[in-house]
């Protein structure tokens, strides 16, 4: 009897060892053909692909909703409104100055209708471009009716044409691929990763009582105190002049994410002629549009554009060099000055 009990105990021990070994093997072995249980760790289950109507996050880019149905509905509404707008514009072009008032009223009504449309988040910038182009056209006709100077009238209508051309271009890109179009205009080219002060640079407050400061190399000229609306600084040779216009609302085609060669100030329109187009860029923490003007050999003679700080303060800048193109080092220095514009911590 004792021998039989020993045999039974031995068999039980062997079975226990085998069971433990199988459990360990199952836990350690890859999952081939075994269905995962509902309580399985999420790490062992492959993630679903991102939905097609949401922009995949990239560094510095916020995701945005872009549902197909809402996008298609907005484009249909936009197209119908633009047909009415173009008809009204053709009528305005053939109407005498004295009879323009009701036609301009129609344009203003269509402008309000455009702002009342509800685009998906990925198309908001298109609405900004559309309404800005409309604003310039309406402003041009109002200036013409009020017998404003021919120079300002022509300048305003030229801005309207530029804005409409930019809108048409971006609308075509959006039709082809909404997410790609959105991503392209909301991803700045990084020109200066971060402003890094050095011992030979000094800080300047942009105006008494203003929170904004910027930094300059030690051998650059110090601008006059309180020259907040137009700051003019020069390099040691006097050949490079950097003007920073402040204290005005700047509008780089309605959004700092869509660059073009015109900027609107409180005092009127400010246009930068360029044979190179414009880019949406980032200078340190600041973003904006950069326009370069070059000569035949490719050298840059002028940098200009609009700049927005993280708190929403806007600036217009133009840097010129006389007699010869800027060197790459001079371009980089100007961009670093623009990157240094910031809120004072004092």
Descriptive keywords:
20% strand, three-stranded antiparallel β-sheet, disordered N terminus, seven-stranded mixed β-sheet, alpha+beta, Protein Transport Mog1p, Chain A, 7 helices, 346 residues
Question: How does this model look, in words?
Answer:
With 346 residues, this protein is an alpha+beta fold. The chain folds into two domains: 118 residues; 155 residues, Protein Transport Mog1p, Chain A (3-Layer(aba) Sandwich), CATH 3.40.1000. It is 40% helix and 20% strand. The chain has seven helices and twelve strands. It has a seven-stranded mixed beta sheet, covered by helices on one side. Strands 2-3-12 form a three-stranded antiparallel beta sheet. Strand 8 and strand 9 form a beta hairpin. The protein is globular and about 60 Å long. The N terminus is likely disordered.
List the SSEs and their pairings.
Elements lengths: L1 H27 L39 H26 L7 H16 L7 H22 L4 H27 L1 H8 L3 E4 L8 E5 L6 E6 L12 E5 L5 E6 L16 E4 L2 E4 L6 E6 L2 E9 L5 E9 L5 E8 L6 H12 L2 E2 L3
Parallel strand pairs: 1-8
Antiparallel strand pairs: 2-3, 3-12, 4-5, 5-11, 6-7, 8-9, 9-10, 10-11
